[in-house]
Design a protein that fits this description.
The chain is of the alpha/beta class. It folds into two domains: 222 residues, 3-Deoxy-D-manno-octulosonic-acid transferase, N-terminal domain (Rossmann fold); 186 residues, Rossmann fold. 49% of the residues lie in helices and 14% in strands. The strands form two sheets. Strands 3-2-1-4-5-6-7 form a seven-stranded parallel sheet, with helices on both faces. Strands 10-11-9-8-12-13-14 form a seven-stranded parallel sheet. The radius of gyration is 23 Å and the shape is globular. The two termini are 29 Å apart.
Length: 425
């Protein structure tokens, strides 16, 4: 056994035991262990309910964001090979809860705790011919067990950011071994490809692009909520503010008041818990701004009231109504998904924190996005766009063109996976 795995299997059980003890005081950790209590029993039941009649592709996505990258790849695979069995795992409880009934997969389950015993047991049950890991969430024992049992390993939508922890001496030594396990590596950018090649010796890595662009295009067309709300915003320059945090909302409401509510506004908070929605309602009340919630939209609702979207899963389709988008998170840890609004061909605004989202910076350079640094800056930017239809149209076209030039990653990655399957025979 290699030194990296000896070290990992010495440290990981200690860390897992510590996390188990801490779960007594942490609801999040408690849930993590609780949902995995009967994991293998459920996996065996799912396996026994059907026979392995075709190649199995196990796709692992850490959370909902990685699943949005995996989804178009899965759909490409099923289009080319409808007989494939797709088995999908999540690390995140919330992602599993949302996508546990995903129709594109034959089996959806929580990724087990990464012990050597669990890994062998999982691989024996799932029986993957190809294991596809989205982006990151490397669990060494499961990767090794899958490879030892003959599975082909594919790393998709891989990124290696400048100044990443992977370049630290110990991490580089450890992950060099992990990355060597993969039969194929598909990176998001050319910079990522070069880093895999020069730092980790993966000269065979291929730049395929980011599948999120394909997924954003697939979800571009609005659903029931768009049809319901469209009459309220017809011929209006609607601003949809998505994935907002408190700091974002403070700036948005300040700009809204500064511009005398001259545009309709839809707020889609990142957190739709009852407590957070009540806080947001309090902010609107204090500012003297009328509002309504989507969950209880009154018959007399008009676009002169701010609309609070107090449910998850519909932000992407709401962008179809917008003429301008604001994406939250840029005054906190990092801006959220800027591709989803850009695919609609509308200008995208966000705060200054976007280092971990290269596409946000690229959108700025392309002319499809604007970085704002405060309420006055946001108000001035909105005023310019509202007063200059040509500028609004130009920036929107730039955003749409940026997305259009980056489509096709899912098809390229799916083709690579199919080549791995063909190589099994």
């Amino acid at each position: 056994m290699l030194v990296q795995f000896i070290l990992y299997n010495t440290i990981f059980p200690l860390a897992a035991s510590a996390a188990k003890a801490l779960s007594l005081f942490s609801p999040k950790l408690k849930t993590f262990f609780r949902v995995r209590k009967n994991l293998f029993l459920n996996l065996e039941k799912a396996r026994d309910s059907g026979k392995k009649t075709a190649p199995v592709v196990w796709v692992h996505a850490a959370s909902a964001g990685e699943f949005e990258q995996a989804r178009p790849i899965i759909e490409e695979l099923k289009t080319s090979r409808p007989d494939l069995l797709i088995r999908l795992s999540f690390q995140s409880v919330s992602a599993y809860t949302i996508h546990k009934d995903y129709p594109g997969a034959d089996m959806v389950f929580y990724h087990p705790l990464d012990t050597a015993r669990n890994a062998r047991r999982t691989v024996d049950i799932v029986r993957p011919d190809v294991f596809v890991l989205m982006r990151y969430d490397f669990w060494p024992n499961h990767l090794r067990a899958a490879k030892e049992r003959g599975a082909r390993l594919v790393l998709a939508a891989a990124v290696l950011r400048d100044r990443s922890v992977y370049f630290k001496p110990v991490a580089k030594w450890f992950y060099g071994r992990i990355f060597s396990l993969f039969h194929s590596v598909f990176t998001v950018s050319e910079c990522d490809r070069r880093r895999f090649a020069t730092t980790f010796g993966r000269t065979d890595a291929v730049q395929a692009g980011d599948p999120r662009f394909d997924q954003a295009l697939r979800r571009k067309h609005g659903g029931d909520q768009v049809a319901r709300l469209a009459p309220f915003y017809a011929a209006r320059t609607l601003l949809v503010a998505g994935s907002t945090w408190e700091k974002d909302e403070d700036l948005l409401l300040a700009a809204y008041r500064k511009l005398h509510a001259s545009f309709p506004l839809v707020l889609v908070p990142h957190d739709v818990s009852e407590a957070n929605i009540e806080r947001l309602e309090g902010s609107l009340r204090s500012a003297g701004i009328p509002w309504a919630k989507l969950s209880c939209l009154p018959e007399e609702f008009t676009a002169s009231s701010v609309l609070i979207v107090d449910r998850i899963g519909i932000l992407v389709e709401l962008y179809a109504l917008a003429k301008i988008a604001y994406v939250g998170g840029g005054f906190g840890v990092n801006v959220h998904n800027t591709v989803e609004p850009a695919v609609h061909g509308i200008p995208v605004l966000f705060g200054p924190v976007h280092l971990n989202s290269p596409e946000a910076g690229e959108l700025i350079v392309a002319g499809g996005a604007i970085e704002v640094r405060g309420a006055d800056d946001l108000a001035a930017c909105l005023r310019n766009l509202l007063d200059d239809p040509a500028a609004l149209r130009h920036r929107g076209e730039a955003a749409g063109a940026y997305v259009a030039g980056r489509l096709g990653a899912s098809r390229r990655i799916a083709a690579g996976i199919l080549r791995q399957i063909d190589g099994l025979s």
